[in-house]
């Protein structure tokens, strides 16, 4: 017997992906329905379903009576047996969510890590314990495990490059989490590979779906810093990570932590706005989220000090957006974090500074919308990305 060629294996993987993707995205379907939707032959679908069923990804559902009284067998995701785990590590907490392949949340556990500065081991231990708590409470096989961080990620295997919220330099977070987590070790022992992802990239994916799959989206968010991503394509979006908070928009401006001068974050980031509004102490006592929510409330209420801080910052946010948008002309600009509640201000400035180039190219000024997903965007996006990974290579 000869080994199947790589091409044959690739085609089979693509066909497995098409069948599984159809059932997950469209819901339970018959073999002939899948064949019609995927343009595969009925025989091919039957063979592919055998593999997907054996792998525990699909199962048959009880026969139902069709119009002519002939029983039909439907295939559905084997949702009882599998789960995806997404873990988010932010400036204050570890949040771990288990969900089904279809995106239904099964369990969410959140623990504060107490923000021990410069001590990744202590924080990884909290993350590991939270993952193990979820894995123990959800007795399903983990098909995908992703850790999302509020920091840039790079390398093979991926590592956190630097996390300014936690005073980390380069940290191999996967290795530290593995050391403390039985669930991670078991997942890897069964052939799994833990993903490590920057939050803005997966959050952008969730925002893109929430915004109705625009063909081209710029995502800019502000929480503990300012970050974002660029999303290209409507139905099969590609996310490009981008250091949007470090666009050097002020010539000879203040020195930024990144080493450049005049980055957007130095004039429109949370620290500078909270300080200018006298809310730094509130951030210390009640947390950053609460202080930024208070800042937004005060701006919208017309509080003089908050408005005086926000007005020049808003102009710089609009200008940074204008510069990025001119590079690829997105249909939609989504503002996340505390910018979400102030998106109308940014849009007003953008419309006042951008119309000429739009007219010249006969293009509309991109619409600016505030995120409606809030803090959940990264976890929702991580679930979407995990589902896409499972569908792309079902038998991995
Ligand atoms: Zn910078």
TrEMBL record:
Q: Which Pfam families match?
A: ROK (PF00480)
Where does the UniProt annotation place the signal sequence? none
UniProt xrefs under InterPro entries: ATPase_NBD, ROK, WH-like_DNA-bd_sf, WH_DNA-bd_sf
Which domain of life, per UniProt? Bacteria
Q: Which family does it belong to?
A: Belongs to the ROK (NagC/XylR) family.
Q: Which PANTHER family match?
A: BIFUNCTIONAL UDP-N-ACETYLGLUCOSAMINE 2-EPIMERASE_N-ACETYLMANNOSAMINE KINASE, ROK (REPRESSOR, ORF, KINASE) FAMILY
Protein's name in the database: Transcriptional regulator
């Amino acid at each position: 017997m000869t080994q199947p060629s790589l091409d044959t294996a690739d085609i089979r993987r693509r066909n497995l992906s098409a069948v599984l993707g159809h059932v997950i995205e469209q819901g339970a379907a018959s073999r002939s329905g899948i064949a019609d939707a995927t343009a595969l032959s009925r025989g091919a679908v039957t063979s592919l379903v055998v593999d997907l069923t054996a792998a525990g990804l699909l199962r048959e559902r009880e026969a139902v009576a069709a119009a002519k009284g002939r029983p039909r067998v439907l295939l559905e995701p084997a949702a009882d047996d599998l789960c995806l785990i997404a873990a988010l590590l932010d400036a204050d907490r570890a949040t771990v969510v288990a969900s089904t392949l279809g995106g239904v949340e099964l369990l969410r556990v959140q623990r504060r890590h107490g923000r021990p500065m410069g001590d990744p081991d202590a924080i990884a231990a909290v993350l590991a314990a939270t993952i193990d708590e979820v894995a123990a409470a959800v007795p399903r096989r983990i098909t995908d495990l992703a850790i999302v961080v509020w920091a840039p990620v790079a390398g093979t295997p991926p590592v956190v490059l630097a996390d300014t919220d936690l005073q980390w330099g380069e940290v191999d977070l996967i290795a530290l989490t593995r050391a403390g987590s039985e669930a991670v070790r078991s997942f890897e022992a069964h052939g799994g590979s833990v993903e490590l992802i920057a939050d803005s990239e997966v959050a952008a994916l969730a925002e893109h779906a929430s915004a109705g799959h625009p063909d081209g989206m710029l995502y800019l968010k502000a929480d503990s810093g300012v970050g974002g991503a660029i999303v290209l394509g409507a139905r099969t979006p590609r996310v490009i990570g981008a250091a949007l908070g470090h666009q050097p928009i002020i010539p000879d401006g203040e020195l930024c932590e990144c080493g450049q001068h005049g980055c957007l974050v130095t004039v429109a980031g949370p620290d500078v706005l909270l300080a200018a509004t006298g809310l730094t102490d509130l951030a210390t006592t009640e947390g950053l989220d609460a202080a930024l929510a208070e800042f937004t409330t005060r701006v919208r209420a017309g509080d003089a000090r908050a408005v005086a801080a926000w007005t020049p910052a808003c102009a710089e946010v609009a200008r940074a957006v204008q510069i990025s948008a001119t590079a690829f002309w997105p249909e939609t600009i989504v503002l996340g974090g505390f910018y979400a509640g102030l998106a109308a201000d940014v849009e007003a400035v953008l419309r006042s500074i951008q119309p000429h180039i739009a007219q010249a190219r006969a293009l509309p000024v991109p619409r600016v919308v505030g995120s409606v997903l809030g803090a959940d965007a990264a976890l929702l996006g991580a679930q979407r990305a995990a589902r896409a990974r499972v569908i792309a290579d079902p038998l991995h």
